[in-house]
Structure formats: structure tokens, C-alpha cells
Amino acid sequence: MKTIRWLLIAVAALVVVGAAFIYSGMFNVAADDAHWSMTARLIEATREHSIDAQSRSVLTSLSLEDPDLIAMGAAHYDEMCTGCHLGPGLEDSELRAGLYPLPPKLAEHTGHRTPAELFWIIKHGLKMTGMPAWGMTHDDRSIWGMVAFVQKLPQLSPTAYHELVGKGGRGHHHAEDGDHPEGNSAHAHDENAEQGEHSHGPGDGAADGASGGAHVHSQSAKSASVSQIAVAAAEPVSVVEQFFHSLASGDTRTATHLLDPAVLIYESGGVERSRAEYVGHHLESDAQFLKSAKQELLSRTGDAVGDVAWVASEAKLTSNAQGKAVNLVTTETMVLRKSQDGWRIVHIHWSNRTAPISTAREVGHAH
């Protein structure tokens, strides 16, 4: 009993001392007064472990070697980041000189950061550093552009830097501009157009496509006639695109990760009531079908309210796998919910109809 009593007394004393320290104003919060070394080490350790943990779920289907993406990132960086992180040929700035902790010179190095960590930091910012959360005003593709550029920045001369900024300055915009974020529209993955658009095929393989309920990924076709995506749905659309890009590349692990464990999938009268059921039945065959099927996006709409979003797409689908032609018009609706792990797909509805003869001919020559 004495031990417990002394422990309670010690805890109470610490609370009193802590309260006295806080309310006395003894701690100097000025930016020109460095932390105590122990405080600095604790904050740094906390920050690094947090970045590592929070960035593990960050995924992208974008190529960080895309010259257009890098140029767009250069324009954003020059507009928003040089005041703190400088650029080639810049030694310091009035803003940076007064910040604590001092921001890194990204023109010299990006440290040990992975692309996922850079994306998370740029999007969400960092407490107690002055690093803002650019995700409040920029869509994901714009942020990935900055990631792609920052990785190239230490290799650039001042002349090359300004040339790249000039190239990327044409038409870059932010999510707050009022129209749909460029990066999350139906044209978000231009690099895929050269490889053949990705389509989501019938669960039992291409041979059954004409009658077996094929479904299509309404992704990156340049000829899309309608794209009405609300700004709030930009991130959910990106998740939908990551899901199918992962399937198309055979990365079924990532595709599975983007599905909610209780996902409900409707397809041509059938139903799968969980992620495990889909993985056990149709995931692998859908991934295989994507290798041979091609699609042309006709329309995409979407919106988000709070932590729920929907994305609906219509497309033309064509395939000639194993010598059996598939010519369909497909529709797809996905519902997503935001959790602590980010946006996850909770419902999918795939359906199709046979394309008219004229439409089928158009599809056959789409690529």
C-alpha cells in the first residue's frame, strides 16, 4: 500500500510541476530559439516513425518518369516550394532563413525519402515544421508531379530547371480552380494509351465475353466524350484507376488491398459478398482477361459527400482472345468509403449489352 501511495504522490507531483511549467511561460516557443537536444531528438524520432507508418498505404499507377508529369511538378514546385526548399543556384531566402527547423535544400538532396513518403509529406504536411498540407488545394496527380520532379531536382542545373518550369507552366492548375482536376479525369494515365487501354473482362475468361457478363475498366481512353467528375471525387477516381491498373499489370496484391474486406460485387445477376470471395473466384481470371481486352471510354461521372463517393463509367469493349470476338458496351458503378486507411471500394456493379454493329466496327478500329 505504501508503494502505491508513493506512486500516486509522484504522479500528482509531476502533474503539478508540468502544469506550472506550461502556465509559467518558461518554455520559449520562438522560432529563433532551438529546441533542447533531447526535445529535438524526440520530435525527430516521432516524426520519422509517423511518416514511415502513414505512407505505407500510399499507392499510385502513375509513371514518375513521365516527362509531362515531371514538367507539371516543376511548375508547381517553382510556384510554391522555392521560398522554403530553394532551387538550383539559390543559396537562401528571407522566408527560409527564419524557419525552424530549417527546411532541407531539395536541389541538393531529397534525403532518404521514398516516393510514397514524399507524396504523404507533400499532401498532408508536417506539424511543428511549417510544411503545409498541399493536399488541401491540389489533386493527387499534381502532388505526384511534384514527387516526380523533386526526385530529378538534384540533377538539374539552373538553366535546365528554368526550362523545365517553363515547359510545365502551360495549363497547370489546382483543385480549387472549380473545374475537374486534370490528373484524375478519364485521361489521367496517358502512358497507358500507348500500351492499350485496360479493360476488365468476364470472370470466366474472354471466351465467354459476349454472353458471360464482361465488365470494363473505364480508364485513360483519349476519345472519351464525357467526363464529369466533381472535385471532391478526384481521390476516389484515382483509387478506382489504381485498382484496374494493378489488375492489368498483374499486381493482384495491390488490387486486393484497394477492396474493402466486405466489398459487395454484382455482375450480370451474380454476386460476390466479400473480398475473399472475389479473390477466390474471379480476381485472377479478370487480371488475365485485361491482357487481351481493349476499351474506349464513353463517359465518366462521379461525386463524393463526406466519406462516401461514387464513380460511374460507360465504355466500349473489344477483345479477340482465343479467336472469339467480344464487342460490348459496358457500364460500371463503384462506391467507395473513406476510412483511416484511405479510400476503399465497398461496392461494384458491372453490366453490359451487346454493341450495335456500327458501334462494334468503331471499337474494332479504335486502336
Please outline what is shown here.
This protein is of the alpha/beta class.
Structure description:
The protein has 367 residues and is α/β, with parallel strands linked by helices. It has 2 domains: 133 residues, Cytochrome Bc1 Complex, Chain D, domain 2 (Orthogonal Bundle); 183 residues, Nuclear Transport Factor 2, Chain: A (Roll). It is built from 14 helices and 7 strands. Strands 1-4-5-6-7-2-3 form a 7-stranded mixed β-sheet. The longest helix is centred in the N-terminal third of the chain and has 23 residues. The radius of gyration is 25 Å and the shape is flat. The C terminus is likely disordered.
Q: What is the element layout, followed by pairings?
A:
Layout: H1 2-24, H2 37-54, H3 67-80, H4 82-85, H5 94-97, H6 115-124, H7 140-152, H8 158-168, H9 190-193, E1 226-229, H10 234-248, H11 252-257, E2 259-267, E3 270-272, H12 275-281, H13 283-290, E4 294-305, E5 308-319, E6 326-339, E7 342-354, H14 357-364
Parallel strand pairs: 1-4, 2-7
Antiparallel strand pairs: 2-3, 4-5, 5-6, 6-7
CATH class of the largest domain: Alpha Beta
What global shape is seen?
flat
CATH level 3 topology of the largest domain: Nuclear Transport Factor 2, Chain: A
**Backbone CA Rg:** 25 Å
Tally the beta strands: 7
Q: How are the strands of the biggest sheet laid out side by side?
A: 1-4-5-6-7-2-3
Total helices: the number is: 14
Summarize model confidence as the mean pLDDT.
Answer: 78
Class from secondary-structure proportions: alpha/beta
Q: Flag low-confidence runs.
A: 170-226, 359-367
Portion of residues within helices? 25-40%
